[in-house]
Amino acid sequence: MPQGTVPVNEANALELTELPGVGETTAALIVDERNRNGWFHYPEDLLSVRGIGEKKLAQMRELMDLSIKENESGE
Predict the structure, then answer these.
(1) Which fold would CATH assign to domain 6-65?
(2) Are the CB atoms for 24 and 13 separated by under 8 Å?
């Protein structure tokens, strides 16, 4: 993990709790949303996660890494 950032598209729930304002419940909801709907491409995509609003997103924005590693040519 790059120092100071959390790889939102790859992190497990425990790693996601490193984001400000993200506890175990919100982290689990982020993982669930990612599993159901795919990667987060923009910070605003996280607004679809229950418990994340504009204020929380603003706190998290600087620490989020939304890059996607393309291991295989799948989807």
Answers:
(1) DNA polymerase; domain 1 (1.10.150)
(2) yes
Query: How far, CA to CA in Å, does 50 sit from each of 26, 40, 46, 74, 75?
Result: 7, 15, 9, 29, 26
Considering the entire predicted model, what is its pTM?
0.86
- pLDDT tens for residues 34-69? 999 999 999 999 999 999 999 999 999 999 999 987
Report which residue type is found at 69: K
Query: Quick check: 25 and 11 in contact, CB under 8 A?
Result: no
